[in-house]
Write a structure and sequence with these properties.
mainly alpha, Arc Repressor Mutant, subunit A, single chain, 3 strands
């Protein structure tokens, strides 16, 4: 007799994780995305996380952006950004210099190697995502992205509501 509880299965026969619970599915997709990303870029000799890849793209788009402005754009706390930046600086992908007009502010720029890494992230991401989302049609991907954006906006509003209530 199996000790496995009766669990629903998807169309492909795989067990559905906590049927009806969105958070665990989002976390599972994030985990799969991160694993695929690491393998994908490791094969291209680039050791950055998805968040670090995004940081490289943002710094390339806004050279000289301050750490505070970048943290705001990413909607993360400055200490969290420092944890993300530290390996990028150690790999000599990002330079952090004090602003000429305000010594309290750090400005971020990509090095030559960082520019190459950002270009690789930008050029490789569409194929990486297509590989990961291979079972979605182009139309389904557009709907998926729109739904993700809507869910993110709702989650941000919920967090803001909690903060105001405190």
């Amino acid at each position: 007799m199996s000790s496995e509880p009766n669990t629903p299965e998807g169309e492909d026969g795989r067990t559905v994780l906590l049927d009806g619970v969105v958070g665990i599915r989002i976390r599972r997709l994030q985990s799969l995305f991160g694993s695929h990303w690491q393998n994908w870029f490791r094969g291209r000799s680039l050791a950055v996380t998805p968040v670090q890849g995004g940081v490289l793209l943002l710094i390339r788009r806004y050279p000289g952006i301050s750490q505070i402005a970048l943290a705001r754009r990413l909607r993360i706390e400055p200490p969290t950004l420092v944890q993300t930046l530290t390996p990028l600086i150690a790999q000599k992908l990002v330079e952090r210099d004090r602003a000429a007009d305000d010594g309290r502010v750090y400005e971020l720029r990509l090095t030559r190697v960082g520019l190459d890494a950002a270009a690789l992230v930008e050029s490789s991401t569409p194929q990486h995502e297509a590989d990961l989302l291979r079972f979605l049609s182009v139309e389904e991907r557009q709907v998926f992205l729109a739904l993700l954006d809507k869910a993110i906006a709702g989650a941000e509003a919920a967090i803001e509501g909690q903060e105001k209530a405190e």
